[in-house]
Specification:
The protein contains eight helices and 15 strands. The chain is of the alpha/beta class.
Amino acid sequence: MIIFHSDLDNTLIYSYKHEIGPEKRCVERYQGREISYMTEKSLELLEQIREQVLFVPTTTRTAEQYDRICLGTMRTPYALVCNGGILLADGQENDRWYQESLAGISDCTGELKNAEKILEKDPDRNFELRFIRKLFLFTKSRNPCSTIGRLKKALNPEQVDVFGNGAKVYVLPRYLNKGTAVLRFKERLKADRIIACGDSEFDIPMLDAADIPIAPRGLGGGQTLHPNWIYMPGDRLYSEELLAYIWNTIYKLKEGCGHF
């Protein structure tokens, strides 16, 4: 079995703020508004790929945020949400997976509480502080560099990671990463090979865990730091480049012209 793990935002789908051309389809609505899109070409390629391999969306989004998305007409049997801390099977949370995730981060409870105290008093925080399913912390800052700097100075980097994404600020246990989730899922399904793609720091552990890791040029410092990654050239939209690459790889395998 081959499993295709993919991040969603800015990898397969794009916000309405991102210009992706006229040939696009809405894949996410929120409060009656269209907020995310895929190109028609990306949707076509994804449908073809899903007929050949198991596609598993792997995202930092919560289950509620993921449920807003409709990726074509085919059923998506599995999804990993909350940065891999929660497994959805046919849309339902798998409680055993979640309890295993909580057990995996149990040694980080003290550092998460420290981070919570720091963020509660942070002068730049301008959004509510959320403890997402007791797995990780999320908020927003008017000055994310300063907020992140304070967190990194105070917290133990061997236990937690601190990430920023625009104004968003995250504090996650080191165990709670997409790479760990991908390997757990691989063992669960006894899969043979993993294809993975992403576009941000959150995706680096997942790419490192994959047999075929696909990234945009520049992520992770380039080929010097990750010589085994496959970097897309950036000549066209990333989603179309990566899906075309995956489809061509699958086609060659079927024709006996290549191998993992």
